[in-house]
């Protein structure tokens, strides 16, 4: 049943001052009335003190504050009761159990938000933004999720949808009077309108790589010769001594991955084994792992040691040619940095850092954020951005249909047939916003939600 009363703890379990229990459904007020003394559905959206009791044993479970939100003015669009109980390991669970005994069912993950979507309180993009906001670990993720929750992306897609329908209206005359040579709307005007909407879809699509990276964190792989100071820099960027640092070349043998927020943006930092020809079995495996990470990286931070400009500690020198070859072999963009500048006689060309003095670290952080998220930085927080593969594939479909429309017109296909491509493009945008959303799409989306959301 879709609107049966559901209940869940909306706050994480554990010791806390308060916890919030949420109840939603057509009979939610009946359930609440069996447990709350008193319960006032006639005083909507007022926070009122009450005793929460078990409906069959009458046992006093907790003193709470409860508020009733009658449909449709609630998060789910159904009758909702929010109950603030005391926190801790026992009380919130017993409060939920009492409400279940009174006739509510424990909610599935994401079920509240799913109902909000089905009742038209949120579109699909806003529901995704809700999950992104909860998952946000970096300020840039929070700002982006809030913009999407505010319908920034939805509004842009609706505007594009409107433009596609206008384009269809422009060729309506050709559809109705296919025999006429020239309709009242010139082909040049149709072309201009088509180009404008096509370009706008393409521009939005172009935000996808960095948008998806913003949700997942940019994979930043630190590489360089043994002893170049990679692990030291990894720890400095992380703000914590995570990787082992010693003066022995070949200290790091495994790849170490950690989440870090750099200049407000999310990164997955990877420290790797120093690159050299080694006969050590373990180190060789480590170097192979490093190369795998380099192949998958969004961005490479290449470290060069300023402390030993002539010979490297392992007796070999990584000459300019060798490091240039390395950088050229990387698919991802490379940020080059000179490490240990406190040991150097004079300041290096380009970006130099020292983890001992802290010199250059702020500039390095800014450079990394720029290299991984430069397009988003340039767009600011105002322009909408697409952040999921689901968004990207729908926009790719819309773009392909828009292109097919124009190609069909160029080939002299009749207007009615060409217009079906515009309809299909509109359909792709509708799927994206979630106008009509099949159950399996909802299942996949809400499976990743937490219970109580
Ligand atoms: N003076 C100075 N010493 C540094 C700096 N960064 C690293 N070191 C020293 O350089 C040595 C090697 O540092 P690591 O961070 O272990 O170098 P690595 O590149 O991870 O080395 P491998 O794991 O062996 O490839 C250690 O003795 C560090 O203390 C720096 O900025 N200044
Ligand atoms: Mg190391």
CATH topology group of the largest domain: Rossmann fold
The bound ligands are: guanosine-5'-triphosphate, magnesium ion
Helix content: 40-55%
Q: In what order do the strands lie side by side in the largest sheet?
A: 3-4-5-6-2-1-7
Summarize the structure.
The protein contains 16 helices and 12 strands. By secondary structure, it is of the alpha/beta class.
SSE layout and pairings?
Blueprint: E1 6-9, E2 14-24, H1 28-35, E3 36-37, E4 48-53, E5 60-69, E6 80-88, H2 91-101, E7 105-106, H3 111-118, H4 124-135, H5 139-149, H6 152-170, H7 172-176, H8 187-205, H9 208-216, E8 218-224, H10 230-238, E9 256-262, E10 265-271, H11 281-296, E11 299-305, H12 320-329, E12 334-339, H13 361-379, H14 389-410, H15 415-433, H16 439-447
Parallel strand pairs: 1-7, 8-10, 8-11, 11-12
Antiparallel strand pairs: 1-2, 2-6, 3-4, 4-5, 5-6, 9-10
Bound molecules: guanosine-5'-triphosphate (GTP) and magnesium ion.
Residues 230-231, 243, 251-252, 271 line the site of magnesium ion (MG).
Describe the structure.
The protein is α/β, with parallel strands linked by helices and 453 residues long. Strands 3-4-5-6-2-1-7 form a seven-stranded mixed beta sheet. The chain has a five-stranded mixed beta sheet with strand order 9-10-8-11-12, sandwiched between helices. It folds into three domains: 6-122, 2-Layer Sandwich (Gyrase A, domain 2); 125-207 and 386-433, Four Helix Bundle (Hemerythrin (Met), subunit A) (Up-down Bundle), CATH 1.20.120.430; 214-379, P-loop containing nucleotide triphosphate hydrolases (Rossmann fold, 3-Layer(aba) Sandwich). The model has no long low-confidence stretch (mean pLDDT 91). It has helices spanning 28-35, 91-101, 111-118, 124-135, 139-149, 152-170, 172-176, 187-205, 208-216, 230-238, 281-296, 320-329, 361-379, 389-410, 415-433, 439-447, and strands spanning 6-9, 14-24, 36-37, 48-53, 60-69, 80-88, 105-106, 218-224, 256-262, 265-271, 299-305, 334-339. Helix 14 (389-410) runs antiparallel to helix 15 (415-433). The longest helix is centred in the C-terminal third of the chain and has 22 residues, at 389-410.
